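SAMPLE LOG
Freezer: B-3
Tube label: C17
Construct: single chain, 363 aa
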Amino acid sequence: MFVLEAPAKINLFLNVKKELTDKGFHLLESLFMPVSLYDSVSIEVFSAGSLKQSDGIDLHFDPALSCSLSETTVHKAVLAMRDAFRGGTRTEDLLIAVQKRIPEKSGLGGGSADAAATILLLCLLWGLEPLSDEVIAAASSVGADVPFFLFSAVYKKGFYVGAKEPALSEPGASLSGSSSALLSTYPPFFEEAKAAYLKGIGDEFEYAIDALNLNIVLVKNADDGVSTVQAYQTFDAEGMSGKNGDIFLAAYKEELQKTNASSIDQNNALDLSSDTFQELFSAMGNNLEPIALKLSPSIQEVRRFLIERDGVCAAMVTGSGSSVFGVCSTFQKAEEIAFAARERGWWAKAVTTRCAGLKPILC
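STRUCTURE (predicted):
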């Protein structure tokens, strides 16, 4: 069995543009950042025809999702990879189990993370380069932000901006018949997941960059969540332009340089009142946030709850909602606020941004 943990993400910056592609998708620019909340995806491989499912994909989610299994991103990812690399043929049967911890319709990218985990496991099983154009095209066909989770975990020379460029390891042996080579395959995995700046429809990778060491509390109300389709339809009718991405990136890199030099531990207080942090908070933005607040007014209650908490210096909707994240002075403070949010009947979790990305585990 092969197992991989798939992290959630937040958007520290998101500027959706009115400009559309030929296929009707919105152009955007965004900084995606993984956080330490994970789904787990496992795959067992059987010879073709071993399983009763007509497509040879036996898929299980715990807890169960609100959509049919054939509509899930995991199922779509397997079919996309088969089309791209197996001529659409059922060359083997797959038993896939997904342990869900990232809530649905939360703006935390759980479905895309699960799809990316599935694609990366198939790359490792089939001996494919995870960042090849063909794999990225297959990932993009499942969802525009699916490639991010590959970019944030797998190192490719020339695409990294950070304090220290990772050293390349030697290529590992082929995976055909040998699972022991799994963790040594080329390209190497980042020791920590990277943030990534994306453009296009969320599928054009500018570069990977170190994640700021932030303590985050995630809070989601008890509503069903915000439909991404409805959010973009409302944006088309009422949406406003977002903040300047260049200004945000400059503020982010300045704070990153200062933070990396000080080696802050998650249990120590961050100087969130510093000039550089204040510039970063001022540059952060999400122009889908007003849409999410209109479509689900209870999100405003969550946002207000976070802003009013001692130790929270910034709070913002992530993606199209419905989760709101707060930047906290300490991890202990994030845990305290998460507890208070759960007391109100909301889902909440304290997380950090210094975390593992997509990481294969041998079982």
